[in-house]
Design goal:
The chain has 168 residues and is of the alpha+beta class. It contains eight helices and seven strands, in the order ααααβαααβαβββββ.
Length: 168
């Protein structure tokens, strides 16, 4: 999906799901049928209260199918109470302090000569780039996620939807 199409898809998703700027980043995920696994994980990691705070946050939100693509048993294992720390580490790897909209991401990539690096709330870096007109995020292990919907505006930041779960 090209950047223009990506922005159109985000606008459609935003309006069709009835999100408003009164919704925070957690409310946006809760309002999406494609993010039930992410919401369950955020609850299990005890992150809901933190993500409902003032922020601002940029959340890269993997879809249910992104979680389903992980090796069998990984999600179930992460959701166990004894793995709460590891689950929290995975989830904060998808969150950046600040309100980083799609236009900001694209500008940073262009200004960086084709790549931009951002730090997650956990302190680990993510590399942003463009591939075929799509924003792609690469983790430290070389896993690549494509932004499939962008700029879902929240009262405390912005949500961008990913097709892959990134790992610290």
């Amino acid at each position: 999906m090209k950047v223009k199409n990506l922005l159109f898809a985000a606008l459609f998703l935003f309006t069709s799901l009835g999100f408003s700027q009164n919704s925070d980043v957690v409310d946006i995920a809760i309002g999406s049928e494609d993010h039930t696994t992410l919401v369950a994980a955020a609850k299990a990691a005890n992150l809901v209260k933190a993500l409902k705070s003032e922020g601002p946050f940029t959340v890269f939100a993997p879809t249910n199918s992104a979680f389903d693509a992980l090796p069998e048993g990984v999600v179930a294992n992460l959701l166990k109470p004894e793995n709460q720390g590891k689950l929290k580490e995975v989830l904060v790897f998808h969150v950046i302090a600040g309100d980083l909209k799609a236009a900001d991401v694209i500008k940073a990539i262009k200004d960086g000569g084709g790549k931009a690096e951002v730090k997650t709330l956990g302190g680990a870096p993510l590399t942003l780039s463009l591939k075929g007109g799509n924003v792609v995020i690469t983790d430290g292990q070389g896993r690549m996620a494509t932004v499939v919907a962008a700029d879902l505006k929240a009262s405390n930041g912005v949500v961008h939807v990913l097709d892959t779960v990134l790992l610290p």
